[in-house]
Amino acid sequence: MGKVVDPKNARSEDYRVVLKEIEAEGKCPFCPKNFRWHRKPFLRRSGKWLITEAAWPYKNAKFHFLIIGGRHTERVQRLTAEDFRDVLFLLRWAIKRFGIAGGALSLRFGDAAYTGATVRHLHFHLLV
3: pLDDT confidence band, cut at 50, 70 and 90? Predict the structure, then answer.
């Protein structure tokens, strides 16, 4: 599978420690069979995607959610229209459920040296 996490991009020391453990095991932390490192429950599913609170939220974020695909892919070119429908469903659900008046939806892809990502498995951040 190759390198799936990048501890040097961690924003806290406790997160870096967890990422180094994941790196040593050579597992993808966002693949369903390896999801034991995430400390928050799944809030909702749509198709192969789920939404959860970020275990290590960004500083000063009122809300920080992750929308994570259930199949491992690191290439944005492999996302389908069905993937985007599921992501949009979860985004709309979160907006309604948490009364979000405005925020940002982001997706990092490609080399973590350019993106600052810690996990290569494609996932969206919903930030408020």
Answer: confident
Q: Per-residue pLDDT averaged across 51-70, rounded?
A: 96
Does this model's pTM top 0.70? My answer is yes
Question: What is the Cα–Cα distance from 60 to 21, expressed in whole angstroms?
Answer: 27
> Where is 92: in which H helix or E strand?
helix 81-98
DSSP3 helix / strand / coil % (the chain, rounded to 5): 35, 20, 40
What are phi and psi for residue 87, nearest 5 degrees?
A: -60, -45
Please tell me what DSSP assigns to residue 58: P
User: Across the beta sheet with 49-53, what order do the strands follow?
Assistant: 42-46, 49-53, 64-69, 123-127, 104-107
